[in-house]
Amino acid sequence: MGNGRQQHEEITAYLRSAISSHEFAPGDPLPSESELCQRFESSRGPVRQAMATLRSEGLISSGRGRRTIVLDTVPTQSFDGVISYSEWCRQSGFEAGQITQSVTRRPADPTLAAALEIEPRAPVVSIFRLRLLNGIPAMVERLNYPLEVGQHLLTFDTDSGSIYQHLIDSGVDINNATRTIDAIGADPDDAQLLGITEGAPLLRVRRRAFTSNGTPVESSDDRYLPGTASFTLNTIRGNPSPLSMVSAR
Amino acid sequence: MGNGRQQHEEITAYLRSAISSHEFAPGDPLPSESELCQRFESSRGPVRQAMATLRSEGLISSGRGRRTIVLDTVPTQSFDGVISYSEWCRQSGFEAGQITQSVTRRPADPTLAAALEIEPRAPVVSIFRLRLLNGIPAMVERLNYPLEVGQHLLTFDTDSGSIYQHLIDSGVDINNATRTIDAIGADPDDAQLLGITEGAPLLRVRRRAFTSNGTPVESSDDRYLPGTASFTLNTIRGNPSPLSMVSAR
DNA sequence: TAGTGGTCTAGACCACAGG
DNA sequence: CTGTGGTCTAGACCACTAC
What we know:
Chain A is α+β, with helices and mostly antiparallel strands.
């Protein structure tokens, strides 16, 4: 094998980079399995495992008798980009900005207490910011943390940068997150900050973040101006989508 | 094998149903691979393929030396549910309904032609329907197909049921789809059909569907009443999310 | 009909977790 | 240590596509 890498990983990495560099462009056929077997001095097993990986990532399409084809490149998002607006902007090549409206220590209302799995009226730290994209208002951000987590923010300059980064640096363990996406009309605060009329459409992303052992560390509500942000997802027949659409009714 | 099913499908189906019926409950170990080999009189290949399928669905967790474990059930959405409102309703336990507004054969405008990757003014079939959830207006659906695909719909009773099912039955190859989610204000048609005011927030899901070799077969625009539908996605640190948030600016 | 990818077999060795 | 799952080999047959 040469290095410590597994053979199928070797093959996956080669194909993935060749695809992303358009050495194999969308619509092109990939080398056949037998060619890859020869090139990597491997049996079919590792080659097929690599193919399965790429297929599950939505990069290729294959079928009986057909050559394996490169699909249009599918964008993915890193975990940091999922959880941090600042990081998302950085990755997208935009400049993030923030104008803090308030940082509050207060008792949790019943809904928030449930979302954070703490006692009602237990103390939480809430942050309310207008977020900018290249200097233009783009999103209204409401972040809520249990006191244990949020205490790190009471002395933090919330106009200075990424709260997520600060929490990580403070030793907070953030392992996974659930996002729920829907549409909502602007409330008076949203309307005033974003310069739109009350009731105008916003894209809402509610997020709950958890530690490795499942304790909630954040419950947030981000509202984007239409045109500022959208979500894109690729689904392949036979690969159930990790994004589920649910009805409230 | 008994029936015409592949062995790995047989094993996958058995395990999936045993898991969903809590015959193997979350936290329980699955039978070992060698047990399954014996039970299904199979070699390890098909057993491992079945395991890989369940792993990709987030149903099980496995690792070197460890027993394979049943995870807490993760909500996922089948490809059929992704692409078909009727199927999504069925899976969610709701009754889908539809009131067709129009079925049109017309030349594609430039935007639509680009989305379907056909010549501008090439003929397309467009369907415009109000969709119901348990009899109540829930979504406005605009479907567009290249003529080659859409011709199967010109003689189809679009008030009767699932267009997706009809296309599959007509031999159309639908292999993967890309969905883009954002928020938009209701246009006059939306407002009238859904009984809301113009400009009221709607959750828009635009979809492009493709054949196995990457040819677009559908370009659609669904607009949901808030509260009718939302999207939920789980992301784990270190696992890039297949859902990407992109900015239009 | 030649070549493709999908499936399957029957072995083998390894790293690792658990008793 | 035993047994597990992860990896790999070297064959084989089949269904299907493209020529």
